[in-house]
């Protein structure tokens, strides 16, 4: 005998009473069989009960797809009890991936036009939850009619449905513009809050809507002023703050309307100052309103005094006991440090105090902001604070802190000696966390400061004698001892207590480094070279050095073995040339100068469109030579033929008359990537004097609420092209429209073939690693023809 079907309450009780997963599955399988049998029999009276049980099973994670068509039957039923369960099932079981969701469009349209408020509410909730673009386009006019219905219940749900429609189909914005203007006069809280949200969505997605609603800024200002001064209603007040949710929504809308609009910004300046000074900060609701006020002030064209007030509010947030508020303040100040540097500088002591936070996320933000605040006037004090933080900071922050100190010292160092001392302190404290180029930079710095050679070699020798575990420090010390080891023996330096060192002590220390298990192969290579150089700089016999070098002639590491064999050959066969070969290294040009030259070249290339063709030929030839070097000695690169001057141009040169080439039409920009607020745009320049050369500027912007970090853009082109990627301006794009990343691509197209780009983007966003690979094959024809 088949057991009867259970009621929903009994089914819930049995499932909860199951002791094992197997018992639970057995109960659900039996009941699903009863539900299927009931659906096949077509029992209309109990169909809604069976579907309600099936929805509970679906919530538990078991398959319930066989109930989709039953949802459609219940929605089409005239009974309210059936419609209620049917619409609930449609929201849970149907979505845009199922074609069945389109079958309820006609039922929703009929229910919206019936005039029964509960049924209209069910239809609107379902449409706003799972309505596809096709459904939104078909039902937009029905929803627009409901926006002005007398019932607040229906109007509120219709407004929320309109928000969903605008997000799905931005082209429907023109339908909802007239009702929104009328709805702003409503006093019902839910309607007014929903209307502000709808207008915000319209302005973000439609420039026409943005221009339309900029005319109602005075009305929005009056609504917010009424909230601040007299309040809306006591039932919507939170902790003494009058309706903070509505205040935040209005401030967010004002920020959108006032961005890059002088008249609207001027209208709301006084109100923003009033909100910023009169809002209570003792409660979290007041802090939320204040923070939204600060964001609005910073995004619109506000007065200078108002921006200083906003920065001071963020400075007060740094003193709040709530960690979340302090984190928000640090993030916001980091965005403002470029535009309002002097105002943010006033809160530097508070920011430095935040470095001592035990929360890693807070100390990380404080570190980023502290590094951004370093300038030529405070570099000594800030570097001292950052060095103190480097000694106790968490391991995951040491690399960022060490790199930031080195970059700040390189940019703002007051003297070379201070610069050398700073780098040595970083290498001593966190040498294993520094960037790979720190060793080369310090070597170049010491080599270029001839007056500090003796001072540097003594400092490095003392540091090496104290600790040989920091490999970058050991490498720099080995190079410096090899170059200037003779100065260690002289005893005169700028130090108050001269260091007395013998040649045996120097050799013993270097042998200790060679024998240490902590030394890397690259470090041993530095030490071997230093020993060879000391053979020409230290007095006495070189037998000890020859013995040490000969040991590594049978080393397993190929690089060390080759180096030792060559040095042994230098001792045996070419001893007469050893002193000349091992002379002190000449000064090597700094890498920063090369970067500056490349930046200057890119600026000159951007200005080529305004220059005469004759002046562009040397620059173009330099660019082509640089591209040839990048592609190697293959010889496949083809230089474009020189342009033959036209008779008119030649006559102009002959008569010494000014002859300008006709201006080229600008190439339109192209957006090639967009995801969660992250956008990548391409802009193009073709220098007239070099028609085969295309300069592409990649601009990465971020309008989302989270920072984009560790951003890397890689590109590839077909073999007939030559591509050179310049160094990007950074790898982090702050949230909410912060300073973008720019990168220059130089592409040589001698055959004028259609251009195709393959891009690979990797970055971190909202705590997740993102990797995107895509091809750009819709570049404008002007880029290659």
From TrEMBL:
Annotated spans, Disordered: 592-617
Subcellular location as annotated: Cytoplasmic vesicle membrane; Endomembrane system; Golgi apparatus
Membrane disposition: Peripheral membrane protein
Record keywords, A-Z: Cytoplasmic vesicle, Golgi apparatus, Membrane, Protein transport, Transport
GAE domain span: 665-780
Highest taxon of source: Eukaryota
Keyword Transcription regulation: no
GO terms for biological process, alphabetical: intracellular protein transport; vesicle-mediated transport
Gene3D superfamilies: 2.60.40.1230, Leucine-rich Repeat Variant
Annotated GO CC locations: AP-1 adaptor complex; synapse
Family from the record: Belongs to the adaptor complexes large subunit family.
Name by which UniProt lists this protein: AP-1 complex subunit gamma
Organism: Carlito syrichta (Philippine tarsier)
């Amino acid at each position: 005998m088949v057991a009867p079907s259970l009621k929903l309450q009994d089914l819930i009780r049995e499932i909860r009473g199951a002791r094992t997963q197997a018992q639970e599955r057995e109960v659900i399988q039996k009941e699903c069989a009863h539900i299927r049998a009931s659906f096949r029999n077509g029992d209309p009276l109990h169909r809604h009960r069976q579907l309600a049980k099936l929805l509970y099973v679906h919530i538990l994670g078991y398959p319930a797809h066989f109930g989709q068509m039953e949802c459609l039957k219940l929605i089409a039923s005239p009974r309210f009890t059936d419609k209620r369960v049917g619409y609930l099932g449609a929201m849970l079981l149907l979505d845009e991936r199922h074609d069945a969701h389109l079958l309820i469009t006609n039922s929703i349209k009929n229910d919206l036009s019936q005039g029964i408020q509960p049924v209209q509410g069910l239809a609107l909730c379902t449409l706003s939850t799972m309505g596809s673009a096709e459904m939104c386009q078909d039902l937009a006019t029905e929803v627009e009619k409901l926006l002005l219905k007398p019932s607040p219940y229906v109007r509120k749900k219709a407004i929320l449905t309109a928000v969903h429609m605008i997000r799905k189909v931005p082209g429907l914005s023109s339908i909802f513009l007239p009702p929104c203007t009328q709805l702003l006069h409503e006093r019902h809280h839910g309607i007014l809050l929903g209307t502000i949200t709808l207008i915000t969505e319209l302005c973000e997605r439609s420039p026409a809507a943005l221009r339309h609603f900029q005319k109602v800024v005075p009305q929005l200002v009056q609504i917010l002023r009424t909230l601040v001064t007299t309040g809306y209603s006591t039932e919507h007040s939170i902790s003494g703050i009058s309706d903070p949710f509505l205040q935040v929504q209005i401030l967010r809308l004002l920020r959108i309307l006032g961005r890059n609009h002088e008249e609207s910004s001027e209208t709301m300046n006084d109100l923003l100052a009033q909100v910023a000074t009169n809002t209570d900060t003792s409660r979290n609701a007041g802090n939320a309103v204040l923070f939204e006020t600060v964001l609005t002030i910073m995004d619109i064209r506000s007065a200078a005094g108002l921006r200083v007030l906003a920065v001071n509010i963020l400075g007060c947030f740094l003193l709040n006991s709530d960690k979340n508020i302090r984190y928000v303040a640090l993030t916001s100040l980091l965005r403002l440090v470029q535009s309002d540097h002097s105002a943010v500088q006033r809160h530097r002591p508070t920011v430095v105090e935040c470095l001592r936070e035990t929360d890693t996320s807070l100390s990380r933000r404080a570190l980023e902001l502290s590094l951004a605040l370093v300038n030529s006037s405070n570099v000594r004090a800030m570097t001292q604070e950052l060095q103190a933080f480097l000694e106790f900071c968490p391991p995951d922050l040491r690399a960022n802190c060490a790199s930031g100190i080195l970059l700040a010292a390189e940019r703002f160092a007051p003297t070379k000696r201070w610069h050398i001392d700073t780098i040595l302190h970083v290498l001593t404290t966190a040498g294993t966390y520094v960037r790979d180029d720190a060793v080369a930079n310090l070597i170049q710095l010491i080599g270029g400061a001839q007056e500090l050679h003796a001072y540097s070699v003594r400092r490095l020798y003392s540091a090496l004698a104290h600790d040989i575990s920091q490999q970058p420090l050991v490498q720099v010390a080995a190079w410096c001892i090899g170059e200037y080891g003779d100065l260690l023996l002289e005893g005169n330096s700028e130090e108050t207590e001269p260091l007395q060192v013998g040649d045996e002590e120097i050799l013993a220390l270097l042998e200790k480094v060679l024998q240490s298990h902590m030394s890397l192969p690259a470090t041993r290579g530095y030490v071997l070279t230093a020993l060879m150089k000391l053979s020409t700089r230290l007095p006495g016999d070189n037998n000890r050095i020859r013995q040490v070098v000969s040991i590594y002639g049978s080393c397993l590491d190929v690089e060390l073995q080759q180096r030792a064999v060559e040095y042994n050959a230098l001792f045996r066969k070419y001893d007469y040339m050893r002193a000349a070969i091992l002379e002190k290294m000449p000064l090597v040009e700094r890498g920063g100068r090369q970067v500056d030259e490349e930046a200057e070249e890119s600026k000159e290339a951007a200005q080529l469109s305004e220059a005469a063709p004759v002046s562009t030929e040397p620059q173009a030839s330099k660019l082509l030579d640089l591209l040839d070097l990048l592609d190697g000695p293959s010889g496949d690169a083809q230089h474009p033929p020189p342009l033959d001057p036209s008779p008119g141009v030649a006559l102009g040169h002959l008569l010494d008359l000014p002859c300008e080439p006709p201006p080229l039409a600008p190439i339109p920009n192209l957006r090639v990537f967009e995801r969660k607020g992250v956008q990548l745009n391409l802009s193009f320049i073709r220098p007239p004097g070099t028609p085969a050369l295309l300069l592409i500027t990649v601009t990465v912007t971020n309008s989302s609420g989270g920072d984009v970090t560790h951003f890397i853009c890689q590109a590839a082109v077909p073999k007939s092209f030559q591509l050179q990627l310049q160094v990007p301006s950074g790898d982090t794009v702050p949230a909410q429209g912060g300073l973008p990343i720019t990168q220059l691509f130089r592409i040589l197209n001698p055959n004028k073939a259609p251009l195709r780009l393959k891009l690979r983007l990797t970055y971190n966003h909202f705590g997740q690693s993102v990797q995107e690979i895509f091809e750009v094959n819709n570049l404008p024809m002007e880029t290659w023809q």
